[in-house]
Amino acid sequence: MxxxxxxxxxxxxxxxxxxxxxxxxxRILSFDDFDRGHxxxxxxxxxxxxxxxxxxxxxxxLTGPMLSTLSHWDGGSHGSYDGSYALKLATRPKxxxxxxxxxxxTFRKACPVRLEFYMTFKPEATEPVLSDRxxxxxxxxxxxxxxxxxxxxxxxxxxxxxxxxxxxxxxxQKWQFKRRSPTFQDIGDGAETVSHFHLDDNGWEDLPDGNQxxxxxxxxxxxxxxxxxxxxxxASMRALDFQCNDRRFDVAAFDSIRIPAMxxxxxxxxxxxxxxxxxxxRTFFYLDxxxxxxxx
Amino acid sequence: xxxxxxxxxxxxxxxxxxxxxxxxxEAGWAREAIFFVRAxxxxxxxxxxxxxxxxxxxxxxxxxxxxxxxxxxxxxVVALRVSHFGNWLRLRTVLPDRSEYAVLVTVHLx
Lengths: 296, 110
Description:
The complex is a heterodimer of chains A (296) and B (110).
Chain A: H1 3-15, E1 27-32, E2 42-43, H2 57-60, E3 65-68, E4 71-72, E5 76-77, E6 86-90, E7 98-106, E8 112-123, E9 135-145, E10 155-158, E11 160-167, E12 170-178, E13 185-187, E14 193-195, E15 204-211, E16 226-233, E17 238-244, E18 247-249, E19 257-260, E20 268-277, E21 283-294
Antiparallel strand pairs in A: 1-21, 2-7, 3-6, 4-5, 6-21, 7-20, 8-16, 8-21, 9-10, 9-11, 9-20, 10-19, 11-12, 12-15, 13-14, 16-17, 17-18
Chain B: E1 6-16, E2 19-21, E3 25-26, E4 32-39, E5 49-55, E6 62-69, E7 77-83, E8 88-94, E9 101-109
Antiparallel strand pairs in B: 1-9, 2-8, 3-8, 4-7, 4-9, 5-6, 5-8
């Protein structure tokens, strides 16, 4: 783009109340304002063959997204960042329980992509106490695979990042990534389907200088929205940058789960958001909005 | 503008025994809901009813409307319609001793 075109684009973005709080790359792949519905965010259903009984244990109890007005017993509807509705992931009321929302796309160019969203998280307000250690973590991941002409050595790459809020009742408040490859298992009797559970609690590593205290607020029903940005280059399959609120983090040490390319996932561009409970209370993870953009 | 419509699976291949319920769902954007309950395997034990519940906060629940008899045969489906429900919805049952159902519960909202 010419300098004039860049300036014009920037001015248009800044004048649009929906996009002004984002910094998208030149092409917006999706902008999910949940006042327009679920916008393609669906539950993560694990792989199975023949019967749901063949799901790996980690996938059996996953819950999926819904549209929420952040309704609370003491204050009524909190509302979303902008409008009435946010996307909500709610775990079961069980320690270790997970909830996942996933958006499934493919890419037309292996290029840098940028995931931006505003998020907040809280435990279900089942008791009138601070409850700041009931949420274990919230996080996001990409699930990517090279195009079908890349040839030998092509990979499926899964960058994971989570905010570990609390673990076994102790505040942690730090960002973590995961690069340990999980074990694949055959599913069913047909020898056509495999599965791996990559969201378990094992294998997470601390992001260097990744400690960050967020705005939890003072009771379980007050929420504040936080900005998150993650840049990843699909061409080199490397993380480029990561930001949460006023902090930018060095991602030189970040790496991803890397697996040999699979037979039916070419050009996959999946984005997932997830939350996990640290106690027997539901964890709620809210998003409004989510912007995915690409540099092409 | 086209009307919003969505389908959510709120119980997937769970074994219901005793006092059991789906996970709650916020559905304040919708005007009507239909629960479908499908038996994934033949039911065991005496027949039982399921009923919709509504809530002011997702934590305290009150029964809404009449119930439906849970399906006995594998892949049999029953439906329960609900309207004017506010925001929170779930499906609940209280099964007699020795009863057991493997269910898939979906709620269709628009």
